[in-house]
Structure formats: structure tokens, C-alpha cells
């Protein structure tokens, strides 16, 4: 079965969706991603949807779900690279994804995640450093 | 129309054209600023010869018949070009109707001894010219409508420029009322520009929007939400006192949208959001 790869980059998880998301694939992604968050104790999830050109209410809900679930598990979610047409569609559908952070591209998304939890991270590293 | 009458009129073509032109040039409503007399002469001659030819056809009374096709074409062309050049409806119509007078005079001369026939011929000529005038009017209005449609399209394109005021900051001055169709254009233009320039902040300036009702506010909120989904933040600026009053009276919730009174303060806020500092240089360096 087709799966969307989830990459671990330091304290963050990176998901790049490069195919059109059908419902089952989206559900699998939600499942995999939450498991991965719990396994790696990630502090942030970055979802790149710059290649997604078609979106429906289900997909919008999945994104919202992922954000809420990650938040419960103490991970921030950033959705990056949304196409203008997709953004207009979601707004017309009444889905403003209020719990989700957004950024223009992966770079800015990473910066946003670092700002959100970065200070925490460096503190911890400093803590470990002093141990070593 | 009688065959002899049609032939007679055809023979008198030169004279008719001369009188017609003379009348038109004498007329106070002549617009020689829009069209030269030579041009008018050429147009009139073309029209007149087509018309006199059609008078000779068997179904001369019916302006929808095949014999009138060339006339209708010429007439449509004249009416449309006049609509575009800015002639008034009266001037366009007078052009056709002034020919009627000249033709009546000619008929009168030809049939002065046969009143009954003269009456019939004048009636039939009148009905032909009237229906031609109606066709001219119809085409004229169609031409004007085309002009209006084009202007409307141009206006909606011109009035939504997206300006890049700083690296990462876009400004969108909205002039005129925001309806659904315009919001769509504005929203698309803004989002495209956000992607193209990679801007993180967009300032929507509504000082040119005359009134804000709940629908306009809804459109603004939609635009802001769409930009936010893409990762850009929107600031609404140029909110006048009366607009603030209406918004509160209507119970529109703008609490989770940044609002500023002027474009300057919105720009200031954008600078602080992007961590940009603008300082005044030393006096010697300025060009003033």
C-alpha cells in the first residue's frame, strides 16, 4: 500500500505530500504521523503541501485533526506552501484551520518551528552539555 | 415600392447625395470634430447606393429580406463605429432620418401629378427608413454596451494593484465597493503576489472603500483567512471613524485580525513584526 514518507529532522518531523491525497491515504498519514510523534517525541511537525492542487473538506479536517492531536502530544504543526487556489477553497468551505500554524515555504516553516520551541531545545542541550 | 419610382430615385442618386450632404453639413449637430466631412461623404455614398439598389428589389418593403443584407451590414458598421467614436444617440439617428426628408422631396417632385401614388410611395419609404433607424439604434446601443463592458473589466483590473512596499511586505489599496466578484479578483491577485514575492505581511488598505457592511466585512475576513492559510499575515488599515462605528454596530468580530487606522501605522507594525528598524540618517546625507 502507498504511504507518504515521514522524515525526522532533529526534533522535527517533515512530511512532503507530493501526490494527490485520497481519503484512505490521508487517514494512513494521520495515523502514521501521530505514531511517529509519540515514538520520536518530536516537538514540531512540518507538512509541505506545495504540490497539492486539489483539496476537499475531508482533507481540511485531516489537517485540523493532525494539528489538534499533535498539540495534545506537545508538538506544534506548521503547514507550508499552500497554493492560492487551495487557500481560497478552504476559506470558501469555512475551514480556516485555526489551530494550525502556516508559513510560505519550508524554510520559513522551519524558522517558525525553531522560534516556537527553539529556546526550549537549546536550554535542554545546555542542560545535557553541563551533564557531560 | 413602384419599379419606376425606384429607377427614378436611382437616377437621381447624385442629386440626393448632394442635398443630403448639404443638409448634414448645414446641420448644427454635425460633429466634424469626430469625423471629417470627406469621411462622412464616403460613408453616406456607400449607404445611399446600397439603399437605392434595395429599393429596386421585389421585396423592398421588408428590411429583413436578402436584398437588405448589405444595407444592414453597412448600417451596423456605421452605428457601431459611431457608438465607439462617442456620437450621441440623437446624432446617430438624425443621420438616417435626415435622408428621409431628402427622399420625400424627390418623390414629391417625381409624383406631383399622382397624389394617390405619391402618398403610397411616401408611406412605404417612411416605413423602410423607420425600420432602418430602429436597426441603427439597436446596433448603436449594442456598441455602447460593449464599450461599457470593456470599461467595467478594465476598472476591476486597474483598481486592484498589489504593491510591494518593502521586502516581505505587500500593500493592497482597495478603491471602490467590494462585491463578491471583486473580492475574488482581489484575493487571487493578493495570494498570487504573496507566492511570487514570498511576502510574509500584506496590508489591506480600505481607506478607498466608501462603506463597509457585513458582506464587505465577510469578504475582508475571507481574504485575511486565505492569506493566513498560506502563511502570510494580513493587516487591515485605513479604517475611518464611521467605518469603525458601522463595524461595531453590525456586531462584526474583527478581534483576531490586526487593524490599524492608517497605512503608516500598519507599515510601522509590519516593520516591527519583521524585526526591521528604520532610523533617520544624519542631516548632511539627505538630498533635501
Could you characterize the architecture of this molecule?
- The complex is a heterodimer of chains A (about 130) and B (about 290).
- With about 130 residues, chain A is of the alpha/beta class.
- Chain A is built from four helices and five strands.
- Chain A has a five-stranded mixed sheet with strand order 1-2-3-4-5, with helices on both faces.
- In chain A, β3, α2 and β4 (about 75-80) form a beta-alpha-beta unit.
- Classes of the chains: A alpha/beta (about 130), B alpha/beta (about 290).
- At the A-B interface, α3 of A face α7 and α8 of B.
Q: What topology emerges from the helices and strands here?
A:
The complex is a heterodimer of chains A (132) and B (288).
Chain A (H helix, E strand, L loop, with lengths): L5 E4 L2 E5 L6 H18 L3 E5 L8 H16 L3 E5 L3 H9 L8 E3 L2 H26 L1
Parallel strand pairs in A: 2-3, 3-4, 4-5
Antiparallel strand pairs in A: 1-2
Chain B lengths: L2 H9 L1 H14 L10 H19 L13 H17 L3 H22 L4 H44 L4 E4 L2 E7 L4 H18 L3 E8 L5 H16 L3 E5 L3 H10 L7 E2 L3 H11 L15
Parallel strand pairs in B: 2-3, 3-4, 4-5
Antiparallel strand pairs in B: 1-2
